[in-house]
Write a structure and sequence with these properties.
The protein is of the alpha/beta class. Helices cover about 45% and strands about 15% of the residues. The protein is elongated and about 120 Å long. The two termini are about 70 Å apart. It binds one RNA strand through strand 8, strand 12, strand 13, helix 10 and helix 17.
Length: about 900
RNA sequence: GGGUGGUUAGCUCAGUUGGUAGAGCAUCGGCCUUACAAGCCGAGGGCCGGGGGUUCGAGCCCCUCACCACCCACCA
């Protein structure tokens, strides 16, 4: 940022800051890699799961985008060439629905406009509102390459779709056939099996008598759909069913009609269910369809594609099927065919887009013969494509094993038109990429294109390579395919992931992604799925307005790996905003203590001061953990580790410890400035992938960043060898324990923090004495002391409070009245705790099996701890004894 | 019917090769200690769902039961 300001305002104001950095990244094309250039660290690529153009950013997107952004920004820091392709999905049915709804408000239907005008209308809508979701992706701070943005219906992708369709057709993997499909009466289209959602419904079971041809007896069938009886072409019973053996091969008269239908036998029939006799309606039930094929039954369609009864339904023609159901049942009852009705609950399919009840419907559709494709896609896991977490692998296998042919034609207008033409003269089918001028069979020039469009997921399945320019051999494909990882929620594992695998392997001869990371579903605080109808939606944009994008991103990252779903509530986001505030204020403190210029570099290996060496050592541990966590998709670990370092180590201890250095001036101050500057810089780099905005803002304000003001372009800080600092770190921790001990005494005895204490520390040994002496000043400040005696032989005054920390005796002389009884009780409590632990460990060590079989270092550690506890207990007991005497006086 | 995940502090959840448990929020007490009250310092709180097994040792591995979610298939 050009106008790097050296002073940060008192509070962090996300709104301004975020807008500026978004603009900065965009203007600088920070995230557009050069596909021609080679980098030694290699390439890293992700294609965004394209949100629907009709869509609005929801929490699922927010999580999905955040995790991908963390991966991409981190990969850039590691020096990789990163491509993150953005784009949107044309979302056939969903988008068409939106525009149709608008037309309806104008009192029109799509048929009033006609196909071409309607599609123009949808494009116009897309131009006007498509920017909505794009703006929302930008709001999240996603570091995508907008110069490579794609839309599943743009020209390049359409070309890819046509090529794939034609090739699969020529290979015999796409066919056209009569089949029973899931039909949505409202959307007027076929749906794939997985686009149908099942939900229980309360209904009735009607028991209906079908009399034998000769009237000698009747067969009672059970159905939930009496209105489909006009399409019955048989009654089926189990071949072994003694009740009905005599009926097999005979004919029954279909009530309300004069048709005779055969009684057939098939083991498919469940003898236990209903009456054990099943009416077979091949045109209106999936299982009946298969039965009908097997037994060569007639398919009689009685419900039209708008859900109304047709001419075959006699008196009920024109009625909606639900109404016909009641009327048919009434007629049956009237004429004495209805034997009984029972209450019944079954499950019924609904359209996943509009939730209308789906009707099994017989029609001519296009199918992909998926078996061969699925086999290859199955075999590629896990060797070529790894699913993370691995537990999803089995689900993937199960689905691939049970897969059925995929119905890809949709009877809507918005989508990829099927590249198939029928010759008006000879009636033959022509399948090719471009519209034919002439029929290759009969040379006629009048051909009609198939009116259907392709399932949206057909084009989505090509997304990883179609976005990179396939079928051209582009440098993007060469450099960035296969992509590194696909990040998505499990709910589209089948819709999308499995199909990308099939298409990628078939057309690119290579998996579309090396890893597939399945993240959680975002739910509400009660664990319910967020949905508009439930009214429990937390809108990410509201959260961004209220708490800033970084707070939202950090929250989502911190909860990312906590199982299969995230229960999100506003309080959590609010909680992490406190962390942003902490970072902001710590940075302000740093800026107050740094000069205009970057501090003069020091040899960090020679920096004295255990606190510096301790924090540098902790920083190295953080760097290592951060790298490992992100590499393994342990996003929550990465976030938690950063949180703890920044708050509990850097802020709570280090910043307090350098305050005396800053006041001292001279070389001490210079050293503290340099270490502070170094640690803060590196911490900002580590935080940046998760919270890019606030870190960029702070970074630009730091001295020494004038020529590298774009934090997003900074490399991951190289590792520093701090193994020599181990001892310093341990000594620092001992001093911290002493300070905490004093604070605890102060708190428990209700000594005002404003009262400065005179402290005596009796060090455990000479090394401890030296370490404490070295940190004398820090202890004085942090424990709020007026004097400090460090002496193993110092006399404890009669009136005092005490503790043992890290082997050192902490003695706080007290003036005035002391509650001896309270102090004895306090020490007793502590002794009891120690005693319990020591007893447990001693017990273990007394067990010969343990000493023999457990690893030596574990045993040694226990022994050391027992000795330490024994020592501490002895010292505490002596102190306790003094109080007891005081008590008696 | 088939499968998956879960059951750990009041709440929401971590717990990476087995070494008897952690965080945030909430609660309680004390502090405006000049970066931060959106803060600081301290405290309390858990037979890790029940039962059994393997092991010197189990929140973690095996068996079993219970309850809660979810997914797939079927539902005349």
């Amino acid at each position: 940022m050009s106008d790097a300001r050296k002073e940060l305002p008192k509070g962090y104001e996300p709104e301004n800051v975020e807008a500026r950095w978004r603009a900065f990244w965009e203007e600088n094309k920070s995230f557009s890699p050069n596909a021609e250039a080679l980098t030694p660290q290699g390439a890293y690529s992700i294609v965004i799961p394209p949100p629907n153009v009709t869509g609005n950013l929801h929490m699922g997107h927010a999580l999905n985008l955040t995790l991908q952004d963390v991966l991409c920004r981190h990969a850039r820091q590691l020096g990789k060439q990163v491509l993150w392709v953005p784009g949107e999905d044309h979302a056939g049915i969903a988008t068409q629905n939106v525009v149709e709804r608008r037309l309806k408000e104008e009192g029109k239907s799509r048929h009033d406009l006609g196909r071409e005008a309607f599609i123009e209308r949808v494009w116009a809508w897309k131009e006007e509102y498509g920017d909505n979701i794009r703006r929302q992706i930008k709001a999240m701070g996603a570091s995508v390459d907008w110069s490579r943005e794609r839309f599943t219906l743009d020209e390049g992708l359409s070309r890819a779709v046509r090529k794939v369709f034609v090739q699969l057709y020529n290979e015999g993997l796409i066919y056209k056939g009569l089949y029973i499909v899931n039909w949505c009466n409202r959307c007027h289209t076929a749906l794939a099996d997985d686009e149908v959602e099942h939900a229980p419904q309360k209904t009735r079971l009607w028991l209906i008598n079908y009399p034998l041809e000769d009237g000698s007896a009747s067969l009672t069938i059970a159905t939930t759909r009496p209105e489909t009886m006009f399409g019955d072409s048989a009654v089926a019973v189990h071949p072994e069913d003694e009740r009905y053996k005599a009926f097999i091969g005979k004919k029954v008269r279909l009530p309300l009609t004069d048709r005779l239908i055969p009684v057939i036998a098939d083991a498919y029939v469940d003898r236990e269910f209903g009456t054990g006799a099943l009416k077979v309606t091949p045109a209106h039930d999936h299982n009946d369809w298969h039965l009908g094929r097997k037994h060569n039954l007639e398919c009689i369609q009685v419900i039209d594609d708008d859900g109304r009864m047709n001419g075959k339904a006699g008196a009920f023609v024109g009625l909606p099927k639900e109404e016909a159901r009641e009327k048919t049942a009434a007629a049956l009852e009237e004429q004495g065919f209805l034997k009984a009705t029972q209450d019944y609950e079954n499950s019924v399919g609904h359209c996943y887009r509009c939730h209308t009840i789906v009707e099994p419907h017989m029609s001519v559709q296009w199918f992909v013969s998926v078996k061969p494709l699925a086999e290859a896609a199955r075999a590629a896991v896990p060797e070529k494509m790894r699913i993370v977490p691995e537990s999803w692998t089995k689900t993937y296998y199960n689905w691939m094993d049970g897969i059925r042919d995929w119905c890809i034609s949709r009877q809507i207008w918005w989508g990829h038109r099927i590249p198939a033409w029928t010759c008006d003269s000879c009636g033959k089918l022509v399948v090719q990429e471009e519209a034919p001028d002439i029929c290759p069979h009969c040379k006629s020039t009048t051909l009609t294109q198939d009116p259907d469009v392709l399932d949206t997921w057909f084009s989505s399945a090509l997304w990883p390579f179609s976005t990179m320019g396939w079928p051209d051999e582009t440098s993007e494909l060469k450099r960035f395919y296969p992509t590194s990882v696909l990040v998505t929620a499990f709910d589209i594992l089948f819709f999308w992931v499995a199909r990308m695998m099939m298409m990628g392997l078939h057309f690119m001869k290579e998996v579309p992604f090396r890893d597939c990371y399945i993240h959680a579903l975002v739910r509400d605080a009660q664990g319910k799925k967020m949905s508009k109808s439930t009214g429990n939606v937390i809108n990410p944009l509201d959260m961004i307005d209220r708490y800033g994008t970084d707070s939202l991103r950090f929250t989502l990252t911190a909860f990312a790996a906590m199982g299969r779903d995230i229960r999100l509530s506003e309080e959590r986001i609010e909680g992490y905003r406190h962390f942003m505030n902490k970072i902001w204020n710590a940075s302000r403190f740093a800026l107050m203590n740094l000069d205009e210029q970057a501090p003069a570099p020091l040899d960090l290996g020679a920096v004295s001061g255990p606190h510096h060496r301790w924090i540098l050592h902790r920083l190295e541990a953080l760097k290592a953990e951060q790298k490992a966590a992100i590499a393994e998709y342990r996003f929550n670990d990465a976030a938690q580790t950063l949180y703890k370092f920044v708050w509990n180590e850097f802020c709570d201890w280090y910043l307090e410890l350098i305050k005396p250095d800053m006041q001292a001036g001279g070389a001490r101050k210079a050293a503290a400035q340099y270490v502070l500057w170094t640690v803060l810089r590196e911490a900002l780099i580590l935080l940046h992938p998760i919270i890019p905005f606030i870190t960029s803002e702070v970074w630009a304000a730091l001295p020494g960043t004038e020529h590298e003001s774009n934090l997003a372009a900074m490399p991951f800080p190289p590792a520093r060898d701090t193994s020599a600092y181990m001892d310093d770190a341990a000594r620092m921790e001992m001093v911290q324990a002493a300070i905490v001990a004093v604070r605890t005494i102060r708190a428990e005895l209700n000594i005002a923090p404003s009262l400065k204490l005179a402290l005596i520390i009796r060090p455990a040994d000479e090394a401890a004495r030296a370490a404490i002496e070295e940190q004398r000043e820090a202890i004085m400040v942090l424990a709020r002391l007026e004097s400090l005696i460090i002496d193993a032989s110092a006399e404890a005054p009669r009136v005092c409070a005490s503790d043992v920390a890290g082997g050192n005796e902490i003695i706080v002389p007290l003036s005035g009245a002391v509650d001896f009884a309270a102090e004895v009780a306090r020490l007793d409590k502590e002794l009891l705790k120690m005693d319990k632990e020591r007893a447990m460990l001693s017990g273990k060590l007394a067990n010969e099996n343990y000493v023999q079989k457990a690893p030596q270092d574990v045993v040694a550690r226990d022994r050391a701890r027992v000795a330490e506890l024994g020592d501490a207990e002895k010292k505490l007991q002596a102190l306790r004894e003094r109080f007891r005497q005081g008590l008696q006086e």
